[in-house]
């Protein structure tokens, strides 16, 4: 049976891995929408090859270029946030949410309102608006499947289990580019150094977020929101080999680990074939050759982002939206070499402290409007903190 699929963020690392799986089974899928940002050539080439209904770029000023690149193909061209929403509303059986950053939230929400199955790589959606996302999915009978490797691992370990029997969830972290650097060298780390990952090949932003552990900080919040567990039940474990992605501890003492190669096509493939399992062309682990897996606790001095995530989970409400927005601004400033590596966490800390007097921060009822307002406010506060820091 042919399934209708759409891929948001198709030109990115997750998007391209998703397309790789779809390309291997051309008769299995009918592509509805592909979306991208600035990489028009890739978007148009994939939309043509996969015979998509529509290709959407987030950048309105790039529409003429996209139209030219799609001329004569029969694929519609569209641009801008409204077009992204419209594409998310087109009937599809499975939608990949793999835009990077807070921009992934509106199309994801629009898709859920149509009762679709949403494969969620865009962790920022859960961090900024977890209760809204889960509430919307429940109201419209939609399904959210985690694509982040740790969360896919937890999800797989929970098949046939009762969440009430879960004592703890452990998500692993490789430690990123600077796991073993002397602490006093971190301030001088460059974006190029931070954008190299020991095990995974990912987009630039998430790779730098792995070095600061802002990625793991987002994932702590993502775990709380998706699995509805207490912050005290979630732990981070440094595991340099990146082969165990997550572990679930049960009330009888059992610890179920999810192992897999560091290749996102496993988690994407699991979500694509769910609830069945399908063939996925990833490397098979040879544990006898690997011989050894190692673990250590995360150092809060090296990775202050983890402490900040715990504060955000304590505050609740819109703190996740503020945290993510401040992090995105600080990351931009680091990539532009305006601030040091270690300043990213300082700036996010400053923004959260300054916003803590805002009664709106712990606002219980989250909707798209107040998430957007908090996102904007945190970006303004972050810009101030960045100016003070430079
Ligand atoms: P990339 O940076 O590789 O790709 C991001 C995608 O989003 C691209 O298609 C990009 O378009 C598009 N995009 C960028 N900005 C906007 C915007 N403002 N509006 C709409 N689209 C935009 O990111 P990744 O694939 O690495 O990550 C995607 C998401 O998946 C992130 O949330 C990340 O945290 C998550 N994730 C990624 C993993 C990985 O292995 N890469 C692992 C687990 C989670 P273009 O490139 O054309 O400009
Ligand atoms: Mg992850």
TrEMBL record:
Molecular function GO terms recorded: 1-deoxy-D-xylulose-5-phosphate reductoisomerase activity
Cofactor(s) listed in the protein's UniProt record: Mg(2+); Mn(2+)
Chain ranges of the 1-deoxy-D-xylulose 5-phosphate reductoisomerase N-terminal domain: 5-130
List of residues binding Mn(2+): 148, 150, 219
Keyword field contains Translocase: no
Pfam families found in the cross-reference section: DXP_redisom_C (PF08436), DXP_reductoisom (PF02670), DXPR_C (PF13288)
Catalytic activity, reaction form: 2-C-methyl-D-erythritol 4-phosphate + NADP(+) = 1-deoxy-D-xylulose 5-phosphate + NADPH + H(+)
Occurrences of domain 1-deoxy-D-xylulose 5-phosphate reductoisomerase C-terminal (ranges): 144-227
Involved pathway(s): Isoprenoid biosynthesis; isopentenyl diphosphate biosynthesis via DXP pathway; isopentenyl diphosphate from 1-deoxy-D-xylulose 5-phosphate: step 1/6
Binding site residues for NADPH: 11-14, 37, 39, 122, 124, 203
Annotated EC: 1.1.1.267
Keywords: Isoprene biosynthesis, Magnesium, Manganese, Metal-binding, NADP, Oxidoreductase
Function: Catalyzes the NADPH-dependent rearrangement and reduction of 1-deoxy-D-xylulose-5-phosphate (DXP) to 2-C-methyl-D-erythritol 4-phosphate (MEP).
PANTHER family linked to this entry: 1-DEOXY-D-XYLULOSE 5-PHOSPHATE REDUCTOISOMERASE, 1-DEOXY-D-XYLULOSE 5-PHOSPHATE REDUCTOISOMERASE, CHLOROPLASTIC
Recorded family membership: Belongs to the DXR family.
Matching NCBIfam families: Dxr
Protein known as: 1-deoxy-D-xylulose 5-phosphate reductoisomerase
Organism the protein comes from: Psychromarinibacter halotolerans
Lineage of origin: Bacteria, Pseudomonadati, Pseudomonadota, Alphaproteobacteria, Rhodobacterales
């Amino acid at each position: 049976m042919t399934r209708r699929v759409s891929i948001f963020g198709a030109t990115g690392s997750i998007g391209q891995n998703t397309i790789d799986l779809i390309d291997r089974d051309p008769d299995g899928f009918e592509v509805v929408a592909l979306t991208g940002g600035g990489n028009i050539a890739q978007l148009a080439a994939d939309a043509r090859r996969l015979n998509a209904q529509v290709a959407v770029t987030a950048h309105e000023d790039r529409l003429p270029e996209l139209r030219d690149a799609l001329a004569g193909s029969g694929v519609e061209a569209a641009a801008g946030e409204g077009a992204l929403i419209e594409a998310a509303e087109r009937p599809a059986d499975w939608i990949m949410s793999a835009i990077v950053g807070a921009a992934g939230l509106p199309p994801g929400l629009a898709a859920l309102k149509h009762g679709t199955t949403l494969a969620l790589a865009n962790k920022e959606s859960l961090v900024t608006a977890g209760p809204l996302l889960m509430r919307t999915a429940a109201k419209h009978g939609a399904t959210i499947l985690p694509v982040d490797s740790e969360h896919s691992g937890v999800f797989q370990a929970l098949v046939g289990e009762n969440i009430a029997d879960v004592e703890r969830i452990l998500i692993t972290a490789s430690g990123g580019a600077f796991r073993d650097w002397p602490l006093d060298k971190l301030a001088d780390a460059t974006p190029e150094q931070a954008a190299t990952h020991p095990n995974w090949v990912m987009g630039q932003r998430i790779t730098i977020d792995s070095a600061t552990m802002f990625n793991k900080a987002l994932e702590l919040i993502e775990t709380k929101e998706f699995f509805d567990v207490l912050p005290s039940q979630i732990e981070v474990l440094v595991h340099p080999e990146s082969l165990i992605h997550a572990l679930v501890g049960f009330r009888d003492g059992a610890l179920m680990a999810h192992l897999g190669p560091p290749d996102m096509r496993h988690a994407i493939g699991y979500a694509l074939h769910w609830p069945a399992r399908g063939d996925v062309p990833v490397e098979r682990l040879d544990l006898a050759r690997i011989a050894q897996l190692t673990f250590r606790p995360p150092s809060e001095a090296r990775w202050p982002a983890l402490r900040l995530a715990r504060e955000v989970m304590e505050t609740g409400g819109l703190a996740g939206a503020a945290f993510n927005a401040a992090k995105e601004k600080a990351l931009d400033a680091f990539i532009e070499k305006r601030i040091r590596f270690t300043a990213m966490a300082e700036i996010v800390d400053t923004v959260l402290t300054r916003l803590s007097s805002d009664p709106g921060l712990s606002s219980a009822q989250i909707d798209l409007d107040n998430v957007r307002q908090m996102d904007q406010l945190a970006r303004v506060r972050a810009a101030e903190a960045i100016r003070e820091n430079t």
